[in-house]
Design goal:
The chain is an alpha/beta fold. It has one domain: Peroxisomal Thiolase, Chain A, domain 1 (3-Layer(aba) Sandwich). The chain is 35% helix and 17% strand.
Length: 395
């Protein structure tokens, strides 16, 4: 796909986010209801103004209820006749739904779209949840990996350590950073600063999960939902909020890990390079990044993919404090997937909501002072589907 400028892309005009965690909300319908109307109201529009509903849900066995796009017609009053469609792209499902809705507006087929990402994960056993999530890997070759996706990322961490030395302490620094940030996020699954010592010590409460990865290196199984309202620029005139996309890029990589270098997220690197070129910026122009830390080793490698460090030196960013709230480039001021939670279908939407809150100075205790430009990186599978957005407050 060519590097196509997104000058006519729609803007984000409103959002909503529910708390993440093991929620009382009984199903996906309830989660959709928890954010749909709130996002419409936050945008300052009405249900009658919505031309399209984009729903991002992975499911894959978390629920027997399929056709989740149909749930919007009953979960959000006033949308019973509004076209709705579901997107799924593994852990990047939310971003896929967002980009698809934006494409529809950019094509002139709609003026305003509501995008909802949701997932109810805790209604099944941990073992079943692990098997469902393993569907985001290439089962023909990777179905027998022990510990599911944690096992796959455990292999990645082991391979990284073989090349660059044991970086367990640096992974613990990433985990501790994200938990410290998550303690400031009222939506986070874990709102507790666990500290470096706890994250760096194998214990009964922090056992090894797979390879060198400990429990604190792994994101949680969570329930949750988030929503965005996007509109064409003419429609957005006069509304209270407008966040524009200086760039939005989707790049894929080959699915089977056997055909790739485990520690080289080439698709992520390509997405970041294209997004920076499209936006006409360097990494130094960003005030913060929300990145896909499903496991701490993923965040470390993503430092390299975004260009914060050289290949094989992502650990230095953690060790030198570059990604702390007061560092050169704060990463995951929301707490990331590690602390905020990772309800799969909601994640990509949530990451964009967190960025928008920062850019509108509405992030409360999470706020990065004077934040004006953000990067968002959301991936599906092991950097197979890679979505990179550069966001800024519209003038």
């Amino acid at each position: 796909m060519k590097n196509i400028p997104q000058n006519n892309d729609p803007v984000i005009i409103g959002w909503a986010h529910c708390p993440f965690g093991k929620l009382a909300a009984e199903d996906t319908e309830a989660l959709i209801a928890s954010v749909g109307t709130a996002a419409i109201e936050h945008a300052g529009v009405t249900p009658e103004d919505i031309d399209l509903v984009g729903v991002g849900v992975l499911n894959g066995g978390f629920s027997s209820q399929l056709f989740e796009a149909g749930l919007a017609s009953i979960a959000v009053p006033g949308l019973q006749h509004t076209p709705a469609v579901r997107s799924e792209n593994a852990c990047a499902t939310g971003s896929a739904a967002l980009y698809a809705a934006m494409d529809t507006i950019a094509a002139g087929r709609a003026r305003i779209a509501l995008v909802i990402g949701a997932e109810k994960m805790t209604a099944v056993s941990t073992a079943d949840a692990g098997d469902i999530l393993l569907g985001g890997s290439y089962r023909k070759e990777e179905a027998d990996v022990s510990a599911g996706f944690a096992g796959i990322f455990g292999q990645i961490a082991g391979s990284y350590f073989q090349k660059h030395g044991d970086k367990s302490a640096e992974l613990a620094m990433i985990a501790a950073k994200n938990h410290a940030n998550g303690a400031l996020n009222p939506f986070a699954h874990i709102q507790k600063d666990l500290g470096f010592d706890f994250c760096n010590t194998v214990s009964e409460k922090n056992p090894r999960v797979a390879g060198p990865l400990r429990r604190t290196d792994c994101s949680m199984i969570s329930d949750g939902a988030a929503a965005l309202v996007v509109a064409d620029r003419e429609t957005a005139q006069g509304l209270a909020r407008a966040i524009e996309f200086r760039a939005r890029v989707h790049k894929n990589d080959v699915f089977p890990l056997s055909r790739r270098e485990l520690t080289e997220f080439a698709g992520a690197r390509a997405a970041w390079a294209c997004a920076k070129e499209q936006a006409g910026i360097s990494l130094d122009d960003l005030d913060f990044v929300e990145t896909h830390d499903c496991f701490t080793i993923a965040e470390m490698i993503e430092y390299e993919a975004m260009g914060l460090t050289a290949s094989g030196e992502g650990w230095k960013a953690a060790c030198e404090g570059l990604t702390q709230r007061d560092g050169r480039l704060p990463v995951n001021p929301s707490g990331g997937l590690k602390a905020k939670g990772h309800p799969v279908g909601a994640t990509g939407v949530s990451m964009h909501v967190m960025a928008c809150m920062q850019l509108m100075n509405e992030a409360g205790d999470m706020q990065i002072p004077n934040a004006s430009m953000a990067g968002v990186f959301n991936m599906g599978g092991v950097a197979v589907a890679n979505y990179c957005s550069i966001l800024a407050r519209a003038m």
